[in-house]
What does this fold into?
Amino acid sequence: MVTYIDAATAPLKNTGQVRLYGPEDFAGMHKAGAVTAACLDALADIVKPGVTTQEIDDFVQAFGREHNALPATLYYRGYTKFSCTSINHVVCHGIPNDKPLRDGDIINIDVTYIVDGWHGDSSRMYPVGELKRAAERLIEVTYESLMLGIAAAKPGNTTGDIGAAIQTFVERERCSVVRDFCGHGLGRLFHDTPNILHYGRPGEGVELKPGMIFTIEPMVNLGRPQVKVLSDGWTAVTRDRSLSAQFEHSIGITPDGCEIFTLSPKGLHRPGFDR
It folds into this structure.
């Protein structure tokens, strides 16, 4: 049985209760989300063949410093980088390193900044040079699945409605939804209740109420949904080595729908394609 709690009176830890935030909290999330989205916009001009993911991570570090934003991933459960960079068959949590990107790669860059105590969490896919049509299509399907999930995020619906909207569309496009990772509550905490599954049945799960804040971040594979985590304890890859893609937004439930906190200031919701 899920219970709800006023975020203003809740302890600063995950208690298993769903926090309900107020208008001032939403303003804080918009501020944090705007910094994250601006960084992801700026990365559109940096991602290209020959650039290393460590250079990308260095940029995320510098951008955060310039905007008085702290990286939420740094030292989180022992993680030592400022972002996650997931290439091709890496599903999520790819660790930046000195290996250069190659023409035809696809990369997800996941950034979370903390601004005045609020977490802005978002990720986008970026093409590296010229892509094959299969990779382009995967990116298109994944982005559309995110937006369908967001469209289902409104009061009276449930987390299952979000998952069902994503799963139905993805599987109709002959792709698969990763089950091993999910979206999550957000706000003053990096990861909070509830979990947001990207598959499910309409009407099941947690009821959505105004004031809830969470991420939706579907991971979609061209092949089968199964993944495995490598020996570094972080990097998750597709078991069949098929391509994987992910998009993520942080949102808040309003009385008549939801607000997206991490919209692109430049309209680069799908960098490399929107232009």
